Amino acid sequence: MEQKEATSRKSSSFACRIHEHVKLGPKLSETLKGKLSLGARIIQEGGRGNIFKHIFGMQEGEQLLKASQCYLYTTAGPIAGVLFISTKKVAFCSERPITFSSAAGELVRSPYKVLIPIGKIKEVNEGQNVNNTEQKYLEIVTQDASEFWFMGFLRYEKAFRNLQKAISMSI
């Protein structure tokens, strides 16, 4: 009986994490389109590791530790994407292209990307919503005082552990 209850709690907890992850998006239909698009891209490119290599490149000896679906919080709101944690860098790429104005005033569609070399990370802070403890956040502060907030992880603890591992390996 205890094993059945533990399995039920795990399922319930995972379902809650999926619910929290999906509801951060602006619209359910847009969130689902993004997830489907990301899934197709992962299959086409042969896995998340290949996507990471293609978008951000890899240095000799660099290893991808974890790729986590999450949201990057921006002043325009959360952007869904994948956070890649490697032994050399932390990188984020949006699931779908965003539209912005170029210097020439033209509208451009491009993925939203962030790349933070591990050696430039000053600190990593954990946080959670005081009104909803299921909502956990990771804040990365760089040496130049830039702040990056990641939230809506399906597997928050694994992402945090791998981020700490990457930082400790670089010391």
UniProtKB/TrEMBL annotation:
SMART domains: GRAM (SM00568). It comes from the Eukaryota. Residues 50-128 form the GRAM domain. PANTHER family: GEM-LIKE PROTEIN 2. Belongs to the GEM family. This is GEM-like protein 8. It comes from Abrus precatorius (Indian licorice). The lineage of its organism: Eukaryota, Viridiplantae, Streptophyta, Embryophyta, Tracheophyta. The gene is LOC113856089.
